[in-house]
Amino acid sequence: MNKLLLTFCCIVGLYNLGVGQAGFIIPASACLGQSFSAENTSVGGSTFYWNFCSGNLASNPIGDNLGNIGNLNMPVYSMVIKDGSNYFVFITNLGDGTITRLNFGNSLSNNPIATNLGNLGVLVRNIEGIQINKDNATGKWFGLIAGFSNNYLLRLDFGNSLQNTPIAENLGNIGNLMESTHTLYTFEENNNWFTLVGNYASSRLTLLKFGTSLGNTPSATDLGNVGNLNGPVGFFPVLDNGKWYLFVANQIGNSISRLDFGSSLTNQPTGVNLGNIGSVLNAPRSIIIIRDCGIVIGFVVNEKSNDIVRIAFPNGLTSQPTGESLGNVGTFSFPHHISQLFRDGDAIYCFVTNVNNNTLTRIIFKGCPYPAFPSSALRNPPPITYNVPGVYNISLVVDEGLPSQSNICKQITVDNLSISVNPVSSEVCEGRSTQLSATGATTYLWSPAIGLSATSGATVEAAPPTTTTYTVVGSVGQSCSSTKTIMVKVNPKPTISVVPYNPEICEGDSVQLNAQGAMTYSWAPPDGLSSLINARVTSRTATTTKYVVTGTDNKGCTGTRDLLVTVDPKPSFSGITTSCGSNGKNYSIDLATSGDRLTSKYGQIALQNMLYTITNIPRNVSNIVTSYLSITGCKDSVIVPYPNCPLPRLFVPESFSPNNDGINDLFEIPGIEAYPEAELTIFNRFGQTVYITKSYKDNWDGSFSSSNTIENHRVPVGVYYYVLKPDATMGYIKGFIYIAY
User: Fold this and answer.
1) Do residues 129 and 170 both lie within one domain?
2) Is residue 10 part of a domain?
3) 386 and 461: one domain?
4) Is pLDDT larger for residue 8 or for residue 329?
5) CA distances (Å), 296 to each of 18, 238, 261, 299, in order?
6) How far apart are CA 289 and CA 309, in angstroms?
7) Average of pLDDT values for 660-685?
8) Which of 90, 273, 320, 689 has the smallest CB count inside 10 Å?
């Protein structure tokens, strides 16, 4: 394989035929300012070139229209070649059949020296594709040019330098298989040279075989129309996992075909038409497929829409690709051909010929727009550090410029690790928890761990007893970390008080409960409460009940207070016994609870062994209300009906002698005690009232009681008249009584 092919193949990373052995290991990601090392795993190699910020084909390119340089006249095809340390671009001019050579010197970023080599005595109008390769057998540079309208193949002999003016010869229509020959691809395999030819008119492929030297006369083999070719105008071969594929742009069919050659490009291929990828193809004119830093990307130029399309193979080269238009990035006007890509320093370059405005556009996939880690020629470069975040392409070229040259490219993502926490700050109520989340890293460590449900992870539950500042350290790898803090403010629970607290009430009574310390309140159980959300409620319960009041403050924090409303039963008794006594009615009550007390309006009360007795109740009282007072202060009353005890007969004496001799000194009426409201009136023989009372108690001693008599002066001896009314229900008893001294 000649040096040119090696340079081209190894730079794009697709035509590795077994000589490339470059390799290295780097981490997939790093942190801003973090140092890491690239481990060189290359086999062999005498020279090494490391670049740590090369161009990225996944980014959008920049177009630089170089104008009409080298007397361009409908430029159609171009080829980029590196000869020694110099870059050359050769362009075919359809309009006048001439060749333009651009010498960029040691960098494709330079302004080139342009030379129009003319028609070299044999070229005519309507020339198309061009291929230039170095023949190792002879040491010469040979070029092949497709004659489109005349169906022939032209060969250029540059000798040992591309700076020479070549000698041109017409090889004619080889095997009569060249029909509107448009595009070419020349390659060496097993020390033999071959050229694939795309015939625009017949949409068929031809394989030319040169043998061991491109200076030989070739033979031709018809490969036919494979993959539904329709106006093939652009080739690009790809070697993937030991298998060769050829991607073809179909200008008429607005499609891309993929031809599968297996282990050799000299095999008879099979093919599939991939259609109008992403519906963004519009008369596609040229295609290139690139494996760059582990990804496969293609580019297509469209004749009619004057744009460049990027296609991607997310699931490998044999999968259906996707497509997107990147627009007219370089003053395109009928863009006809896009050259192979060259990595020169930190940037990647290719060139697009513009037929309508006779210009050449330089497409640049720039390297870093800011200073990056410097390149290195050491086998093992020093530790690498990036100070700006981004996705970096790191490339290694081994034995650059030698037949054993190979390269490899890998990507590393550099992040400015800055984790974020959510929420930035938090307030919780005492006893509650809050969720803390961290993002931006791969692992996390929280401190303090007390109160967290997990010490590592992006999300934790925090339930601090008091206001606490938490720290989370987010890490990527072993040495890249970022720290954030978050304060969780703990608001205390409201302190709830209730007045009265633990009240004691009597059965059937109610109590007003007043809660304080919060804004709103709820009570449980709600039964018997006049309100559920108020500070003041009325409890009326039949039995002793435990209440819980929950108060909520203006921050949503809640506090509770338990209280017991004790319900004391009413005093009770086990039985009532009534009887008629000689002095009136009697009854007794057996108490149910020791310490209860009993009161009564009538009679005499006595207590012995929890038995109350009331005696001498007037016989004219039919029933009585008796009040009970329990030991807890609860009151009740009961109406006790009494038997209809017969009233004793009254025997009014006919005389008495109030002389203080201790014998019959008082006017006594037996049984009068049964009539507590008895009325007695005494008259003298003149009809004057000498004594009157409404509650006679057998206590008249013969003294005057009227206002016109001397107080306590006894009446004289004689007969007196009395009128007795025992009670309001009975009639008057009348008679005479004799008083003697």
Assistant:
1) yes
2) yes
3) no
4) 329
5) 20, 10, 19, 11
6) 12
7) 88
8) 320
> What is the bridge-based pairing of β-strands 307-312 and 322-325?
antiparallel
Is residue 74 within 8 Å of 95, Cβ to Cβ?
A: yes
Strand 29-31 versus strand 406-415 pairing type: parallel
Top pLDDT among 195 and 610 is at: 195
Smallest CA-to-CA distance from 272 within 226, 240, 203, 312 is with 226
Q: State which residues form the domain around 728.
A: 655-739
Is residue 675 helix, strand or coil? coil
Torsion angle defined by CA atoms of residues 69, 72, 75 and 78, in that order, rounded to the nearest 10 degrees: -50
In a domain, 35, yes or no: yes
For residue 14, give the 3-state DSSP assignment.
Answer: coil
As for how many domains the chain has, the answer is: 6
**What's the CA gap between 363 and 131, in Å, rounded?**
20
> Is residue 266's pLDDT more than 90?
yes
Q: Are residues 556 and 596 in the same domain?
A: no
Residue 631 has pLDDT above 70, yes or no: no
Q: Indicate whether 426 belongs to any domain.
A: yes
Please give the single-letter amino acid code of residue 378.
Answer: L
pLDDT at 7 over 70: no
The residue written with tokens 């009906």 in the block is: 641
What is the biggest distance separating any 2 CA atoms in the chain, rounded to whole angstroms? Answer: 194
DSSP string over 431-458: T--EEEEEESSSEEEEE--TTBS-SSSS
77-93 pLDDT, tens digit per residue, is: 999 998 888 999 999 99
Name the pTM for this structure: 0.56
112 close to 350: Cβ distance less than 8 angstroms: no
Shared-domain flag, residues 81 and 174: yes
Region 545-568 average pLDDT = 91
Sheet holding 322-325, edge to edge: 284-292, 295-302, 307-312, 322-325
3-class SS string, 331-400:
CCCCEEEECCCEEECCEEEEEEEECCCCEEEEEEECCCCCCCCCCECCCCCCCEECCCCEEEEEEEEECC
In a domain, 689, yes or no: yes
CA dihedral over 168, 169, 170, 171, signed as positive or negative? negative
Higher pLDDT, 367 or 731: 731
Give me the residues paired with residue 185 across strands. Answer: 196
Task: Tell me, yes or no, whether 285 and 429 share the same domain.
Answer: no
Q: Are 472 and 360 part of one and the same domain?
A: no
How wide is the angle at C-alpha 493 spanned by C-alphas 487 and 495, nearest 5°? 150
CATH of the domain at 10: 2.60.40.10
Average pLDDT over residues 8-28: 57
Which residue among 491, 507, 532 closes a domain?
A: 491
Angle, CA of 493, 498 and 500, to the nearest 5°: 165
Same domain flag for 169 and 312: yes
Rounded to an integer, the average pLDDT of 678-700 is: 90
